[in-house]
From TrEMBL:
Residues 30-133 form the SnoaL-like domain. It comes from the Bacteria. InterPro entries: NTF2-like_dom_sf, SnoaL-like. Gene3D superfamilies: 3.10.450.50. It holds the Pfam family SnoaL_2. This is SnoaL-like polyketide cyclase.
C-alpha cells in the first residue's frame, strides 16, 4: 500500500498512478489496533487515519484532525511504560464501511503497575481510512 506504481503493465507509458487495492474496513481496523497502536507505528497510522476522525462517545463528539489522531497514539505511548491491545473479536459490517472490535488492553504504568481494561468500538472506514469511531468508554478488567 505504501508504494504506488506510476504505470500499468498494459500501458507502460502512462504516468497516472495505479490506484492501490483498498484495505477492507476489517483489515484497516485490525492493522490500526494490532500494528499502529501495539507497535506505535505512526507511519501506518498516518496511512489508516482520515483527514479528520470523529470520535463519538455517549453524549459527546470530539473531532480530531488527521495529525491529532496520529499524535493520540504517540501521546498514549508516552504516558505509559507500555500499552497493548488484544483484539478478541472483529466483526465486519455488511455495508463494507463499518467494523466493530471487542478488546482487552493491558497497560503498564511507569512504576510497573499493571492495569487491564476492556471495551468495544465501532469504526467507520471510508476509502481505506478511519473517519469515525464510536466508543462508550472502557471498564477495568478483562472480558469474561
Amino acid at each position: 500500500m505504501r508504494d504506488i506504481p506510476t504505470s500499468s503493465p498494459s500501458n507502460p507509458q502512462s504516468n497516472r498512478p495505479i490506484a492501490p487495492r483498498l484495505r477492507s474496513a476489517r483489515d484497516v481496523v485490525e492493522a490500526y489496533n494490532l500494528i499502529a497502536w501495539n507497535q506505535c507505528d505512526l507511519d501506518l497510522a498516518n496511512e489508516l487515519l482520515g483527514d479528520r476522525v470523529i470520535r463519538h462517545g455517549v453524549g459527546s463528539v470530539t473531532v480530531l484532525t488527521h495529525d491529532e489522531a496520529v499524535a493520540r497514539i504517540k501521546d498514549h505511548h508516552a504516558m505509559f511504560e507500555s500499552i497493548r491491545f488484544d483484539v478478541r473479536t472483529i466483526v465486519a459490517g455488511v455495508d463494507g464501511e463499518h467494523a466493530a472490535i471487542m478488546y482487552d488492553a493491558t497497560i503498564v504504568l511507569d512504576d510497573g503497575t499493571v492495569s487491564a481494561i476492556g471495551s468495544m468500538e465501532i469504526f467507520r472506514v471510508v476509502d481505506g481510512r478511519i473517519t469515525e469511531v464510536w466508543n462508550t468508554g472502557h471498564q477495568e478488567g478483562s472480558w469474561a
